Structures are given as C-alpha cells and as structure tokens.
Amino acid sequence: MKNIRNFSIIAHIDHGKSTLSDRLIQATGIVSDRDFKDQILDTMEIERERGITIKSQSVCLPYKAKDGKTYLLNLIDTPGHVDFTYEVSRALASCEGALLLVDASQGVEAQTLANLYLAMEHDLEIIPVINKIDLPSADIERVKNQIEDDLGLDPETALLVSAKEGTGIYDVLEGVVKNLLPPSGDPDAPLKALIFDSHYDSFRGTIVHVRIFQGKVKPGDIIIFMSNRVEYRVEEVGLFRLKKISQKELSAGQVGYIIAGIKTVSDTRCGDTITLKKDPCETSMKGFKETKPVVFSSIYPVASDGYTDLTTALEKLKLNDAALIYEKDSSAALGFGFRCGFLGLLHLEVVQERLEREYDLSLILTAPTVQYKLVMTDGAEIIIDNPALYPEPSSIEYSQEPFIRAAIIIPDRYMGAVMQLCIDRRGINKNYQYLTNNRLEMIFELPLAEVIYDFYDKLKSVTQGYGSFDYDIIDYRQADLVKVDILINSERVDALSNIIHRDRAVERARVICEKLRDEIPKQMFKIPIQGAIGGKIIARKTISAFRKDVTAKCYGGDITRKRKLLEKQKKGKKRMKMVGSVMIPQSAFLAVLKTDNN
Asked: How far apart are CA 186 and CA 200, in angstroms?
C-alpha cells in the first residue's frame, strides 16, 4: 500500500485535463505510440468532437520513480462541466490528492474555485499545476499571484507544464509520488468499497468502478449494495490499464473494477457502498445521494412510426447513463414520445446527439422546463415539470420555482454588462468581491428557469469569452407563474405550452407567435396564431390567406356586382376555416425552441 497513490485531475472546462492525462499515460508507457490517440480516456465520439469529458474514467499507471521504487498511480479523470458535479465529488472521495490545473493564459476561473472547495471538503492534498506555459499569451507570474490570492495555495509549489508539448510531465509524476499520501485502510477489516462510476458491457453486464477503502474482494464473494440491499456473486475483479487486467483480488487502497453479472446500471448507484454479505461493514460511505434530474424535456420521433425505435434506443442508452430518467408521454400535435429528466442542459444535448448519431433517429424536443412546486387551495403540494399537467389556476394557492446561487468571475470592466444580464433574468445581487486588482467574483441568486436556456452563451457574449460561471441549487421560492398556451386557428397546441413568470409571458408569447407565422405555410383561409393565459389572449399574429381575384371578370357595371362576388368569396373562406385544419410542420416546433437560444 505504501507504493500506491490515488489522485484526480480537476480544473475549469478546457484547461487541459484530458491532454495532461494523455501525456501521463504516454510517460508511464502503458500504451505503445502506434496504439496511442489523443483524448485516449474519452471513449465517446461526442467527447472527442467537443473536446469535453462527459464520463469519468480511471487508469492505473505503473511509474518507476527517481528513488528506484515502482509506484502504482491510480488516475481518475473527472468531467469538468457543472452538470456532473456529483460524479466529480464521488471521484474525489476515492482519492487522497488532486492535481488542480490552471490555464497559464486564462488564470483561475469559477469552476477552478468550485472544484478546489469540493476537493477541500474531502480533505485532499492539492498540487497546483500551471498548464499551457508554451502559449504566447501565458503569464505565469500573474497566474501564480492568482493561485496565492484566489486559492490560498503556495504558488512556489506550483508545477509548470505544457501538456501539449510534454514539458514538465515527469515533474508531475514525481510531485504525485512525493507530495501525496499513500492510502490507508485495513486489508483484514470487513470490505468497504465506494462506487464512483459504472458502465455497461453488452457481454459482461454492468462493470462497477470502485475504490477499496478497507478489506478485500475476490471472485466468488457475495457482495451487497448498501443503498438497495441487492446481492450479487463476484465473477471477476481487476485493474484498469486502458484495457481491463483481471487480478486474483482487490485489496484496501486499490482502485479497480468488479464484474458480478449485474443486468441493470440503475442498481449500481454512483456513491453507493459495496460490502460482503457474510462479513458486512457497519456504516456506508458518507456523501451518497441519488442523482436527481434538474431539466425536463419531451422527446418525440419526427415520424410517428419511429416510436418503437426511440423506445429501444432509450432503453439501450439508459444502460450507459444511469442519470437519465424517462417515462411515456403523448401530445395531440406530436403523437407518442417520452418525458425525460436530465442533470442539466449539456446532459440534454449529449443525450439528444447520442440518440441521433448512435441510433440514427430524427427527433423533436420540446422546450426545456424545470420542476415547479404548486401549493393548492386545499393545502396539497404537487410538483410538475410538464406544462400539459398544469392545473386550473383557480385551484392554485401559490407557486414556487427553484433558485440557484451563481458565482461569476469576470474582469471588472464587464461588471455593468453582467449586472444588467443577471437583473434582466430576475437575478438578485448578493455580493461581489475583488479577487485581484482587476478580477471580480459576483454572487447572484437566479431562478433556474431563466438560466437553462441561453444564459451561459449570453454571459460569454457580453464578457467577450472571459466570463466563467458555476452554480448550485439552493431552494424553492414563491413566484407568480402562469401557463402560456399557443392557439393555432383557435385550437390549443399542447406541445408549444410554456410555464413562465407573468412578467415575461407577453414577450415570450409574442416571439413564439412571430416565429410560427414565419414557419407555418399559407392556407386558403386566414390563420390566427394566439398566445393565451387561460381565456385571455396576450399576443396575436395572423397568417393571411391565399386570395383569388374573383372580381377580375367584372369590367365596368355597378359596384354591387363586385361586392356580391367578394361577399360570396368571404362566406366560402369562412366555411373553409370552420372545416379546415392546419398542419404544423416540424420546422415550426424547432423554430420555437430556437427562440430560447437566439
């Protein structure tokens, strides 16, 4: 155990975590140059394309240090995005230390701070690493000052590396060996292992990624998951060295995998504790909680005959993504589909892209919503995330919506623009403080519903890319919410309904009506498009009808002849409007979604 080191790499998005992992893997020689590829730990096509880590990965690196001993370094690569904060916290709970990566040109950003606090909660040894020192815009002294002022770490211990060029990689490996403590734990005590991730293998079932804190586990043992008391017989244990290397047993201090013929990923909950049936440990690991979805959207196939394909695709995707939840849903306009819950907007985008790419589906998504709490006049409390289930307004005593605490770090010259953006989104400025003489941290409390659409894009826009943003959900607060319905030719289209704050209702309804007017093709009769709250119309646009010039054959004569023909045409159009139905093209639903992103 003295020669084991368990560590993680944490950083803000795009500060070079995956590139540094690549260089560490190459330096320890567990993969040949011929088999190596960039972002080697990122297994999904979408991760490579976007340059982000979505799923945490683990790898065991053998390293011969300068003192002549060979050490086993267990690296757990974590996702960087705020949607996956819980997975990051479980990965950190599996480690004794962390490399905190800071970009030499960008400096300390919002998630750098958030991840530092997360690591400090787990009492980890933190090694600051300044990456991208090869960039022309790198300012190492400024970043060292930020590490001291913003993070409270010793800047002299910071390691200087360029992960892209491979500079300083061996200093990082030596720093891990010297500065991080070896794991502690009694190999002879009852088994206590933390699940920090899992993935599905179509031949072996669910493969559970674990850190052993005490005890041992070997093939043939019967294990229990402590959160749901499910039992399984262990078939194989081993270590990750890009490929799975089976071992006779896993012992205290090690990070590896367990295969036990587990059919469903949802049984293996991230953060749960595994113990032995015959000799269980007394308490489970602290910090376990079930992941709860934050953003909700309905997914429908573009063609109605694609429903069975969508059902199969979601079942398969669920095997590799335990955080995704879904249930059957239907819409008068879009047919049958599924109501899905996601960890955040990035998670929603990832699921949509994976369904479209990996399963070759064409999909329509309804506008994302959050969970609202409604307290009824009879005292009952209900939670809804679907506008179609919104009850009669007269039966609601008051409504509540989720609020977040947002930490925004910006250069101080953008303070006014960011302040305006947050106030426009019904934000409350709680605090701001200077981190350095020209960098500012602003704390806002904002409604989650105002953030999930395009807040991050707008923040990047008004700060010219320098703003960084991190948030956590704090509580539910009372708000004046209304359901805005969209009526096309006097018929309500349920898939276009929105729950929104009353102050924003008219503006949103007007934008949706304008978009629909541009997308819905003309008919032989006028089509009114209306936004309504209950029975009150708050916005309207009209698609004018095709018109035939019925008076063309009248040349000269009395005006009453023309009037008679026009009246006849008017009656015909009125009759046509009564029986005519308006087909809404798929592009109209997509256009309404884009109103939230423009």
From this structure: 31
Q: Which residue is associated with the tokens 């023909």? A: 565
Q: Please, what are the domains in the chain?
A: 4-179 (3.40.50.300), 192-276 (2.40.30.10), 295-365 (3.30.70.870), 372-479 (3.30.70.240), 505-530+538-594 (3.30.70)
Locate 44 and state its tokens: 């999904």
CA nearest neighbour of 385 among 410, 408, 368, 362: 368
Query: What is the reported pTM?
Result: 0.69
Position of tokens 């990624």? 209
At position 357, the amino acid (one-letter code) is: R
Q: Where are the beta strands (DSSP E) in 78-131?
A: 97-103, 125-131
Q: What is the distance of C-alpha 497 from the center of its chain?
A: 24
pLDDT value of residue 598: 39
- Residue 423's region, left for phi above 0, alpha for psi from -120 to 50, else beta, is alpha
Q: What is the pLDDT of residue 595?
A: 47
What whole-number distance in Å separates Cα of residue 557 and Cα of residue 555?
7
Return the exposure string of 533-569: e unless at least 16 CB atoms fall within 10 Å of the residue's CB, then b.
Answer: beeeebbebebeeeeeeeeeeeeeeeeeeeeebeeee
Instruction: Give start and end residues of each alpha helix (H) in 63-167.
Output: 85-93, 110-121, 140-149
Stretches in the chain below the pLDDT threshold 70: 31-56, 80-84, 110, 265-266, 288-291, 319-320, 322, 453, 465-466, 547-552, 555-556, 573-583, 586-587, 590-598
The pLDDT of residue 47 is 53
Distance CA 168, CA 523 (A): 68
| Burial of 225: CB neighbours in 10 Å, binned 0-12, 13-18, 19+ | buried
